[in-house]
């Protein structure tokens, strides 16, 4: 990097209304940019591609500067196509406009022949039609005139090389089926190696001077896996030439298509007008923002980061994914980490979507429902009943968890028991119930929800064992959300016993499977009993287990993370914090030292605290009571304190949970954790994991802290409850939520809350603001001072 | 056919509870059987296959006797594999069990060496897992012992040759990608030529003597497009050997798969037990019947035929098609006629499904929604606004209507204007509204329904023109449901003007697009106005058109089918009925004579009567009133009489409409028409169209006559209305319907109606029995005498 480039580095800053993030740095232009922040816009395009592959694919062809969307050029006499390292960058600026979903870049550079050129690039992946992407260059010769050779390509030779530790894995996933040219369109049809999914792309590139389209002679170049066209035009000093490239993408997984290549050609043929395409795209974003925006008054860049998170979430999952057979991968479609596998992250993502696009959460639950068969087979293989959804779910719903993993610290391969995280099933169950609470969609419960809940309950019933000694039921050999503890010290047996989170949630599961069953009516009840081979004896058994599940305690009021946790020695946090820059991945550190994190009271994320995250104090007290335990809610802060001091925060989700659980007891701490959580991808706090893909759960979870935690938003017993308790830093908050089909606008400001319904045809909904119960119906505004 | 075979012919008869249809005839065993009644069970299998191809495929591999599901045999010394014509059939019987979805066949035959053999075949296509099919043979040597050679195959060389007049079209749609053997499984992966869809099949064939699996040496034969295995066993006189073949099918359009071939292999590996597979299948059918069965007491075989129709409907469209991107093709998946194109038939099919499986009609409406883009492009190409769904919709939603068609009577190709049936858009709109009325699913209306209604309304607004002369709006150059009238006599211009059905429905459309718009709330209203580029001026225009659409009348109270209909000469029905055996396809007869049906008052189906079919008298009077016409409902019988005497009933839908419209005025006639309609496929009244595929609209429509017409079932203004008026032949009727999420059991018997809700968690629903309004809530029984 030369001095000039260095000088261009700018801090990230907020502009205007908080919809803009800009980051200008020639540094990014070289490497990091591939993922950050250049990837912001790659999202929805990658989404398409990734669905196609069933794996995350390389996105170089989209974001690899300077070859933006496979568009490049060279000037008269140049041997090479444009390469940044051969130029002197005089000015560089990039701007991501969240409100319109547009990435703009301006660059001013000088080559060795002292020719200065300015390029302004405008790029988007359409939110109006997910099959379209486009890029426009405004190309201006500053101090020269002469011919310019352009190259526009479609590249099928991309590789998955975005995650270094996956180097040993196969990186080339595409094979070329067909490429060619028809009229002014070049096209490429590729197929994934193993899953046989087709992906077709077509591209048209036109050049304009003002409004006049320039005629150019095109030459087609077919290389292995890549088709390009090149053409030249005459550039004149100070005169801007516009290059517009429109790209269409289709896959064999698309709906309403005949064949992917035909489909992408047809789509492109209908799409001649860049500015019309751009206008439709921006409008689609503006409509989305009307529903998804959360306005916040608070110091610093929280507003910007909120929008950054919402923006990324919507790049991965939006109305365009409704009805498609896709889940929410842990890292969105923004990077290759975890290779597109589906974990439990939806537990953190659902609340944001449930209240805005319930058709989408419906669709995501169906994604699980369609894999219920695979989950049943998985349980059956282990000699268990019901359905066992895997920890890492592949495209067919098969278990994709690794059984060994590489420790980059030591270079060694280690056995990996994290697949024993049966709690993923509890997350699915919890989400089913939450979806129902928010939507009251009994039809979903009848057709799908109850069946899944029953199958998951059946599974959990089959993994419980009766302890004569305790006179209680146990769940042995599992791993909790804290992935550090995967076995007892020195034990060959994988897993730990009686993980408190798992056991309490299992008790919750049994009671809610029953509630769901009671909701669905006799006809469906009988059908499900027959289909799932369930009888009243089994239901009684669940009730019995539900009341007698064992929950370990360390001492009165302090829940033990799992049985025997209290016997583990304390960990020397101070020493290790001193010794290592970051101890988030303590497991790897200790392992490299020949030790094991299994041996200490040390957690990656405090899974006991998840209970306080998912349940209100009242609910939790009731849950424990049902299980025959007395739990004093006043001891919650003690539990928090106990575990917070024993947690490395090795997961981006950990801070969200902490912020949440502290919100009612320690507002300052809650705000602090919220801020830590909200910057985690933005500042790549894990030191390198963000370029491997953003953390979807963390991004959505931070928004949800504002949505539900600080506002006290909760639905219980057909009542929407509000109980705001804001950190001092927040002076106002506004959002729209959709509750049972009614759009409500909520505005908190000072000590006032304004609830507005603009929907004249809305059915009445019950709202309880702290202790005040009222009904909202039709168009009305309700203002509460508190 | 020899004498013995001739002697075996039996009439079709009803057995037991009306769930059985048997038809034994050696005649069928030769040829017709390929489609009838052997195809009953092929349905859901074909469905899978047909989805794959985007076209209906040859189903020889499934149903072509004697090669049932590609299973065959030969005895010691035989040169050929089993061929019926070389045997003497001593006994033959086949039985389709609707209740369990199983086709059983028994055959007793003698070969030239006087060896007598009995085979009982049991065959099913799983309703529990749509990826599975299986066949079991019980093979008994009656008077001999010796070796038997079996052959089990998977055949990818099938052709589409089921419709003779398509002979000129390409018939081979599959290319072989891979075939082979793994352990005891043979497999075949094929791909459709044009649409690049993969279809994988895997098969396992085991032989048992009693419970003992016989070890057999297998030999694999790979022919072009076909893989077989053959193996032999020793048969002993009087001892039954069982052969079980289980087949799995997957396609690249499947959900939750990784890759089709893997998927079909994986499915089959998990499926070892024929009887368990069969049990799950039968249970799935029993659950379906609980919701879909209509019990009827009436003379003759109506009960049987009702179940036959319901059975076929569910073979084409069931819970397994929910969420899949498939429409309802006119001929189900039972034959190749119309090559899988989607017409307007869902207008007749929806009511049955709406009241039982609304998730399915939701899904079918989404099938249209996903093709809204294609419909908009189609309108745009013609310089029109909004969305114009095509008359014959192909897989991508493109127009697939022919522009010429072959007259088999004359062998000539004729121009075909039937694509001008814009009323298909009105059918879609009508179904959206009906779905909403039955389910009250406002969420659907918000997300999808209103958008479609608005786009269709926008389209119709753009095809209306203002007539200065009439001071009314007109719709010119269309074709109505009566496809005989596609132009004015001698005119080069295609289409007719002001088709009454189209114009009245268009007025209905405008008012209901408005109603829908009012339902969806301000947020969505604003979003749609932006997205669809609609403003208040456009809405006002619709209102204006709606009130001023022109409807032609022949004379006071008699609606003209279209403008100028009254000027056409009468047709000499008597002469032609005498001259031709059937004049249903009068168009072809007249054309072959050098005349044209365009020149006469003669209809294929009376499209004016469709108005009385879709609307109650009160609604229709209101509709006309809104348009500024006075329509006297007492003239409805005159309209019926006028058109019935001028209709050739060339469509199977025609009789349904007639039965419906006569139900309140002439019960005897209604019953007569109902009977004519209900046998139409069963007796192939059109003389050859049934083997090309059953008529889905007609099958569902006849069931709907019982469901809605005779019971007077109707939903209007949030009230479910009942107003029974049964033909004398019906002494009792029972059915279950799902109204707004509540299962109601309705039983009509004598002059009593019993309404039962067994659903304790059901929300209250309003019911009006004639003039008596009451509420059903939770578990209750209500008995009304009338």
Automatic annotation (TrEMBL), chains A, B:
Domain Glycoside hydrolase family 65 N-terminal: 2-252
Gene Ontology BP annotations: carbohydrate metabolic process
Binding site for substrate: 344-345, 604-605
Top-level division of the source organism's lineage: Bacteria
Gene3D superfamilies attached to this UniProt entry: 1.50.10.10, Glycoside hydrolase, family 65, N-terminal domain (2.70.98.40), Maltose phosphorylase, domain 3 (2.60.420.10)
Gene source species: Christiangramia crocea
Family: Belongs to the glycosyl hydrolase 65 family.
Molecular function via GO: carbohydrate binding; glycosyltransferase activity; hydrolase activity, hydrolyzing O-glycosyl compounds
UniProt keywords, alphabetically: Glycosyltransferase, Hydrolase, Transferase
Name under which the protein is recorded: Glycoside hydrolase family 65 protein
Active site: residue positions: 483 (proton donor)
Family annotation (PANTHER family): GLYCOSYL HYDROLASE-RELATED (PTHR11051), PROTEIN-GLUCOSYLGALACTOSYLHYDROXYLYSINE GLUCOSIDASE (PTHR11051:SF8)
């Amino acid at each position: 990097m030369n001095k000039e480039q260095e000088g261009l580095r700018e801090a990230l800053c907020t502009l205007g209304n908080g919809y803009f993030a800009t980051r200008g740095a020639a540094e990014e232009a070289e490497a990091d940019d591939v993922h950050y922040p250049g990837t912001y816009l790659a999202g929805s395009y990658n989404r398409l591609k990734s669905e196609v592959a069933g794996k995350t694919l390389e996105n170089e062809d989209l974001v690899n500067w300077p070859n933006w969307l496979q568009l490049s050029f060279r000037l008269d006499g140049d041997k090479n196509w444009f390469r940044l390292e051969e130029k002197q960058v005089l000015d560089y600026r990039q701007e991501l406009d969240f409100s319109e979903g547009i990435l703009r870049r301006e660059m001013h550079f000088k080559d060795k022949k002292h020719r200065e050129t300015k390029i302004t690039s405008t790029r988007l992946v359409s939110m109006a039609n997910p099959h379209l992407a486009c890029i426009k260059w405004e190309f201006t010769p500053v101090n020269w005139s002469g011919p310019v050779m352009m190259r526009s390509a479609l590249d099928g030779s991309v590789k998955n090389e975005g995650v270094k530790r996956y180097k040993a894995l196969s990186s080339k996933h595409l094979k070329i089926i067909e490429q060619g040219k028809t009229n002014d369109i070049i096209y490429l049809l590729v197929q994934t190696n193993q899953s046989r999914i087709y992906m077709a792309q077509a591209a048209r590139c036109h050049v304009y001077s003002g409004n006049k389209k320039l005629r150019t002679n095109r030459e087609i170049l077919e290389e292995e896996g890549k088709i390009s066209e090149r053409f030249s035009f005459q550039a004149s000093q100070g005169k801007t030439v516009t290059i517009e490239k429109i790209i269409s993408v289709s896959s064999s997984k698309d709906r309403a298509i005949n064949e992917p290549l035909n489909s992408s050609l047809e789509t492109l043929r209908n799409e001649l007008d860049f500015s019309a395409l751009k206008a439709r795209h921006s409008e689609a974003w503006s409509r989305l923002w009307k529903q998804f925006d959360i306005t916040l008054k608070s110091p610093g860049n929280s507003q910007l980061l909120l929008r950054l998170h919402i923006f990324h979430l919507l790049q991965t999952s939006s109305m365009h994914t409704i009805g498609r057979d896709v889940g929410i991968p842990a890292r969105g479609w923004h990077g290759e980490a975890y290779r597109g596998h589906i974990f439990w992250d939806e537990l953190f993502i659902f609340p944001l979507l449930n209240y805005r696009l319930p058709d989408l959460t419906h669709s995501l639950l169906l994604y699980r429902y369609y894999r219920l068969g695979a989950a049943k087979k998985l349980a059956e293989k282990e000699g268990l009943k019901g359905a066992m959804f895997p920890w890492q779910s592949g495209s067919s719903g098969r278990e994709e968890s690794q059984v060994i993993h590489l420790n980059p610290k030591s270079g060694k391969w280690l056995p990996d028991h994290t697949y024993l995280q049966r709690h993923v099933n509890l997350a699915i169950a919890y989400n089913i119930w939450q979806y129902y609470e928010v939507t009251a969609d009994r039809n979903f419960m009848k057709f799908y929800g109850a069946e899944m809940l029953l199958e998951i309950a059946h599974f959990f019933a089959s993994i419980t064992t009766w302890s004569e000694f305790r006179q209680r039921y146990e769940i042995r050999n599992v791993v909790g959300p804290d992935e550090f503890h995967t076995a007892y010290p020195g034990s060959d047996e994988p897993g730990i016993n009686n993980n408190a989170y798992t056991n309490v949630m299992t008790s919750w599961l049994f009671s809610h499977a029953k509630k769901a069953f009671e909701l669905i009516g006799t006809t469906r009840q009988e059908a499900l009993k027959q289909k799932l081979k369930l009888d009243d004896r089994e239901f009684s058994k669940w009730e019995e287990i539900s009341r007698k599940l064992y929950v370990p305690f360390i001492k009165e009021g302090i829940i033990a993370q799992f049985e025997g946790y209290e016997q583990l020695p304390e960990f020397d946090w101070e020493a290790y914090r001193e010794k290592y820059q970051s101890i988030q991945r303590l497991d790897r550190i200790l392992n490299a030292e020949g030790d094991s994190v299994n041996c200490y009271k040390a957690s990656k994320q405090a899974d006991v605290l998840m209970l306080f995250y998912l349940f209100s104090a009242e609910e939790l007290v009731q849950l424990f009571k049902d299980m025959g335990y007395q739990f004093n809610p006043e001891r919650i802060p003690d539990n928090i304190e106990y575990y917070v001091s024993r947690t490395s925060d090795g997961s981006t989700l950990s801070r969200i949970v902490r912020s949440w659980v502290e919100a009612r007891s320690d507002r300052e701490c809650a705000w602090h954790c919220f801020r830590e959580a909200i910057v985690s991808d933005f500042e790549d706090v894990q030191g390198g994991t963000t370029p491997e893909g953003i953390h979807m759960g963390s991004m959505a979870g931070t928004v949800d802290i504002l949505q539900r935690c600080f506002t006290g938003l909760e639905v219980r017993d057909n009542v929407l409850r509000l109980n705001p308790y804001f950190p001092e830093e927040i002076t106002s908050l506004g959002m729209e939520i959709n509750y049972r089909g009614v759009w409500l606008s909520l505005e908190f400001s000072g000590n006032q809350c304004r609830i507005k319904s603009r929907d004249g045809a809305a059915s009445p909904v019950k709202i309880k603001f702290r202790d005040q119960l009222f009904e909202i119906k039709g168009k009305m505004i309700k203002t509460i001072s508190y």
